[in-house]
Amino acid sequence: MKNQILFILCLFIFSSVLASGKKRHDLIAKDAKIEQAGSGYSFTEGPAVAPDGKVYFTDQPNDRIYVWDEKEGISLWLEGTGRSNGMYFNDRGRLVTCADEKNQIAYFDENKKLIPVHEGYKGKHLNAPNDLWISPRGGLYFTDPYYNRSWWPE
User: In this model, does residue 71 exceed pLDDT 80?
Assistant: First the structure.
């Protein structure tokens, strides 16, 4: 069953690309140049584009979120992020995150305070929320791979 769903999903994506009439090489300008925007991070992850076009990303092991602005470059947005990982902006413009430190799905309020919205299922904690996507209708989808923690009971 899993393979059938994967096949149907791949078929849908392939047919969508064909129907769009665009070729892959049309996505990047011929004169585009690759530029390094920043360095010095341990492991970056979770890029999310804000409504104003700024791009937020995490340096997950260092528990930081940075923001890239086309005019200003990269700056530290927040330190102490609950070890944020995958992120996405919801329809209210709030930055929603997979907060790995306490295995939560959470968002940052206007004061950059981390507000948990989901911590478990049927009395069991989440394993390690990693990436997420919010559908146009508001549904929240996330991955939750199993990463055993040293502080968990067997």
Answer: yes
Quote the CA–CA distance of 138 and 74 in Å, as a whole number: 29
pLDDT at position 50, please? 95
DSSP letters spanning 44-60:
EEEEEE-TTS-EEEEEG
Percent helix, percent strand, percent coil in the chain, to nearest 5: 15, 35, 50
Q: CB of 62 within 8 A of CB of 45?
A: no
Closest by CA position to 118, among listed 82, 147, 66: 82
Average model confidence (pLDDT) across the chain: 84
Distance of alpha carbon 104 from the chain centroid: 13
Q: Which pTM value belongs to this model?
A: 0.76
Decide which of 92 and 24 is more confident: 92
Residue with tokens 């981390």: 114
Instruction: Give the separation between CA 75 and CA 104, rounded to whole angstroms.
Output: 25
Residue keyed to tokens 């992020």:
81
Q: How far, in Å, CA of 74 to CA of 68, rounded?
A: 4
